[in-house]
Amino acid sequence: MRGKTAWIIAGAVVLIAVVLIAVVLHSGGNEQKPSVAQLIAKSKPEPAHPFSLPSLTNQKEIVSLAQFKGKPLVLNFWASWCVPCRKEMPMLESAYKELGGKVAFLGIDSQDTQAAGAAFAHKAGVTYPLASDPKGNVAIAYGLFGLPSTMFISAHDQIVAGYTGQLSRKELNLFIDYLLKKARNK
Q1: What is the DSSP letter of 43?
Q2: Which pairing describes strands 130-133 and 104-110: parallel, antiparallel, or unpaired?
Q3: Hey, what domains does the chain have and what are their CATH numbers?
Q4: pLDDT-derived band of residue 35, with 50, 70 and 90 as boundaries?
Q5: What is the pLDDT of residues 63-109, one digit of tens each?
Q6: How many CA atoms does the CB half-sphere of 131 hold within 13 Å?
Q7: Do residues 153 and 73 make contact, with C-beta atoms less than 8 angstroms apart?
């Protein structure tokens, strides 16, 4: 019971942080919005929720958080039916090709059929690892409330930042820079 309570509390904290970031970034008005870097600098790392899922492209293979331990990870939740996800995917692939040696990328096709997700990923030319989560259980465990959502996880499995909504390349670069900075400071 204690472990479950701790996960629920951690999930709630992550959800609150993600909601606050999304509200600030997407709020209207003339006030000066803080930069992504200013927002993430205020957040406290939380443990990443472990998971094991079938690979989207080969259902016999398993993809798990443990595979990425020791390397910073960009964990993107998406679905083939999600229009912003479809727009964001080419930018993530481009970043992966440029930064794949420094940062790992993993996409989780959430609340989608394996066939639809695999077909879209193939058409989009995605080459980074992809997992299938048709019921969206991992997104729920991370306290996410919309797609696309991206979590930035340290080499030591700590969530250092999260973002809900379609990322621009500039925003992605800021988050990755922050993630790499955290890695150097450990």
Answers
A1: -
A2: parallel
A3: 2-27+34-184 (3.40.30.10)
A4: low
A5: 999 999 999 999 999 999 999 999 999 999 999 999 978 999 999 99
A6: 23
A7: yes
